[in-house]
What we know:
This protein is an alpha/beta fold. It is about 25% helix and about 25% strand. The longest helix is centred in the middle third of the chain and has 13 residues, at about 185-200. The radius of gyration is 20 Å and the shape is globular. The model has no long low-confidence stretch (mean pLDDT about 95). This is alcohol dehydrogenase (NADP(+)). Keywords: Metal-binding, Oxidoreductase, Zinc.
Amino acid sequence: MPTTVKAYAATSATEPQKPFEIQRRDVGPKDVAIDIKFAGICHSDIHTARSEWGPANYPVVVGHEIAGVVTEVGSEVTKYAVGDRVGVGCMVDSCGECVNCEAGEEQFCLKGMIGTYNSVGKDGEPTQGGYSQAIVVTEGFVCRIPDGLELDVAAPLLCAGITTYSPLRHWGAGPGKKVAVIGLGGLGHMAVKIAHAMGAEVTVLSQSLKKQEDGLRLGADHYHATSDEDTFSALRGQFDLIVNTVSAQLDFDKYMSLLAVRGALVNVGLPEDPISLRMFSVVGGSKNFAGSNIGGIRETQEMLDFCAEHGIGAEVEVIPAEKINEAYERVVASDVRYRFVIDTATL
């Protein structure tokens, strides 16, 4: 029989989230049942709950930064055992057969990866996410959380961590490279920590200097305010890589001017409206204007191991479930340093 678990759900685009109950499927031969301990609040959760990226399938339980403990495994599971510390990120399944899945890039499954929430599983049922007590996930989409990471600070790594690790790794952040991070929020603070650990020279580009002390503490070598026009002239042509973590409309031509020849500006933020960019800003200097998604499961595990090795966790504010709606308003107002994490024992 399916298991009933407590959760918090959005029931419309305009109503506050509220306590809810959902069904979790029986554990199949290749499934792992997880007692969720912590769930991070990602801005994607807010966009989905409020139907800002298209209509949500209500009622929807969001949350794709999940950390917990294995409570049961299927008869064919080989990677995990009861008691293991594990995480689940933005996807819970894929076709497993296409060229991208076979390459370990399940996020680009040609048949469409199955999202942790607001998606439809292979059983035809809607997927429900981490703002809940428990979840059942096929073994191949579960990651091991190394012992060196506490579960509360590890939860946001399953989205914010991999979203920033993947482009930094792909574009070669490391010793001798100058990396800039636009924005010091949930994504940006992880980008700074990871780029610093990779050995790059790290600069934060933020609207103001109000978070400068934090940025330097987290590993930035330099911190500049983009509201100061002198910043763009002083830093012109300096960076090998710029990771843009904000979802706001920016003057991308100005930011492209900060790149060195053949440098790359990689976007992980998702503004709702189309952007403007002059092609001269790209062609001049043979520069790259790119985007980056999450990583595959293999790269996500690599990221978790890297973070454990370097003592990297998210900067978190742990909250009870009753404060989810308040936390959403604070995220929208950029009033969090730097990730809210729900203690699911409070559901």
